Amino acid sequence: MSPHETFFLTPSSKMEQFQIDNNPYIQFQIKDFPGNQELKETNAVDIQTIKGCGSLLYVIDAQQQEYEQPCTKLRDIIKTCHAINNKISYDVFIHKVDTDMFLLDDQKMDCLNDIQELMKQLLMDYNLSVSLSFYLTSIYDHTIYESLSKVIQKLLPQVGFISAMIDNLISNSKIEKAFLFDVISKIYIATDSNPVEMKHYEICSELIDVLIDVSCIYGIDEHAGTLKFDKESSSIIKLNHAGGSEEKIVLYLREVDKCLALVCLINEREFHKQHLINYNIDKFKEGLRKIFEAAKNAKKLQ
After folding, report:
1. CATH 3.40.50.1220: does it fit domain 159-301?
2. CA distance 89 to 81
3. CATH 2.60.40.2470 is right for the domain spanning 3-153
4. Is a pLDDT exceeding 60 seen at residue 128?
5. Where are the domains of the chain?
6. What span, in angstroms and rounded, lies between the C-alpha atoms of 194 and 176?
7. Average pLDDT for residues 251-258, to the nearest whole number?
């Protein structure tokens, strides 16, 4: 859905549930509640929802300059949820930071600091100690996807092991940056330990768009009638003067599991060792599958 199409979406009037299961090893549910929903400790359905919740995502409209009311509501939600399930992590999307009100980065940071300080004070009043993260988001850039990626990563216990494997991969293959993407949602499941630069995430995300567009033309499974993304799926794109640099960067995408792709940024002078890179990625795929299987078996034993 393009950004302008979201203007025609009607506000949620009831709870809606979505199942995310693009990959057999990474599956979760999203429950979307309307803004006027109140969670109650006496409601059996609410209690069941809270008990099964790993992360609670709360959206604040940055354009409404009076933030006390939505922050107070969030404090009340946290108070109710914490009494039932104290393992929930709370994530706040400060959304719509893309209007004339936020032309400068300083204006966005002022908004973020105001909401953080207000929430800190409201939680202190009730002695609530919870994991609370804040993100500035917009539908007109990739911030919404990057922020969702960070929320999802906190729900996946195997992310730390996958990141360690990616670190090993980029070290042995002379790769500058690598992301493990869900190609359907464009959420990255894991990355290496180097800091994430938005320009790197954006360009890798756009490579996935190119792959999907080309696959829609040439990669449809004639028997199933579905988009074909399998072990043969890969893409190589060379960029000249990426990010203002004189060095040429190669974007290299390889399928590593169902609907999962490893997207790498590699300096062109290192890409002549593609056979070594492919060998290391194959070993990464084997390790990734073992991690997923181990996590799946551990879940069965719980």
Report:
1. no
2. 10
3. no
4. yes
5. 3-153, 159-301
6. 9
7. 90
